[in-house]
Amino acid sequence: MTEPTDRTSAAAVVGLGDLGISIARRLHEVGVTVTGIDGAAERRRMWEDESGLRAPTSTADIDAAGAARVFICVRTTEQAAAVIDDLDRLLGRDSVLYVVTTLAVDFARGLGERAAVDGPRLVELPVSGGRGGAERGELVVMTGGPAVLPEDAVFLQRTLASLVLPMPRYGDATLAKLLNNALAAYNALAFGSAVELAAVAGLDLPATAELLRRGSGGSWMADAFAGLVDDLLAKDAALLAAELGPLPTIDLGNPDALPPALARARSLLDEG
User: Fold this and answer.
1) Strand pairing partners for 144?
2) Which of helix, strand or coil describes residue 100?
3) SS3 of 195, please?
4) How far apart are CA 128 and CA 142, in angstroms?
5) What is the pLDDT of residues 113-151, one digit of tens each?
6) Are 84 and 71 in contact (CB under 8 A)?
7) Does residue 45 contact residue 70 with C-beta atoms inside 8 Å?
8) pLDDT in tens, 13-58
9) Predicted pLDDT at 67
C-alpha cells in the first residue's frame, strides 16, 4: 500500500478501545498524523507512548486542521450520537466523520437527519476483520450513505481496507454488518455445540477440535473461538433480531429440514 497524500495526512480517532487503537496504529504506520481521543487516561497514555502524539480527553480539544477525517469508534449508539453532535458543531464541510461504531439500525437510517448543513460529511463505516485486520490494513469496509465520495474508497484502500463495499443508503451498511456478525455468532455456536457433542460421544477433544477447525466445517470463528468477545456477538445478534424479528433456527436432526433451506438461499443468490 502507498502512503496517503497530503490531503489525507491528518485524522482523529475517537475511542481508543481495541478496534479504535488498532485503526489508529495502522493509520500512523502508513504516515497519517493521528490524534487519539479517549476519556480513559490509561488508553490516552498508551497512544501517546506508542505514537509520540497527543491524546486529548474529549472532542472539544480537536484541532480542526488535524481532523480532516475523524473515525468514531466508541462502543454504543448513544455515545456515537453524542460525538456526532459535538463534531457537527466543531468541524466544517471540508471534514468527514466515519462512523465505525456498530449502530442501532433505526439510528443509522436517520444519519442524514443528523448531518449539519455546513458541517462535516457523515459516512456510515462498519468494518469486518477485527483488530488484526485493522493493523494489517486488511479490513472489509462498508461505506454507507449518499455523502460517500470516491476519495473515501481511495483513502481507505491505501490505509485500512483490502475491500471497500459501497452501500448508497444510510442504514444498509449497518444492517449488512449485523448480518455478518450474526453469521459469525452462528459459526461460533456451531463450533461450540460440536465440541459439546464430541465430549458427549467420548471423543478425544483436542484431536476432534483440531479436525473441526481444519476440516470442511472449519471457520474463522472456530480458529478464534478462545478469544471471542461473547457479549459483543450477542449484542449484534440481538440488534439484528430487533430489526428483522426472530433469527432462523433449524433442526439438523430432521433430514427434511436442511435441503429446502439451502435451496431457498441458492435461488436468492442466483436471482441477485
Assistant:
1) 124, 167
2) coil
3) helix
4) 9
5) 998 889 999 999 999 998 999 999 999 999 999 999 999
6) no
7) no
8) 999 999 999 999 999 999 999 999 999 999 999 999 999 988 999 9
9) 76
The region, left, alpha or beta by phi > 0 then psi within -120 to 50, assigned to residue 137 is left
Predicted pLDDT at 64:
65
Cell of 28: 500512523
CA dist 152 → 9, 69, 87, 161, 166 (Å) = 13, 10, 19, 11, 10
Half-sphere exposure of 252 (CA within 13 A, CB side): 3
Element (H, E) at 46: helix 41-51
Q: Dig out the grid coordinates for 220 from the structure.
A: 474463522
The mean of the pLDDT values for the chain is 92
What pTM, to 2 d.p., does this model score?
0.86
Residue type for 250, please?
I
Q: What pLDDT shows up at residue 62?
A: 82
Q: How far is residue 156 CA from its own chain's centroid?
A: 13
Task: Using alpha carbons, select from 9, 11, 244, 242 the residue that is nearest to residue 125.
Answer: 11
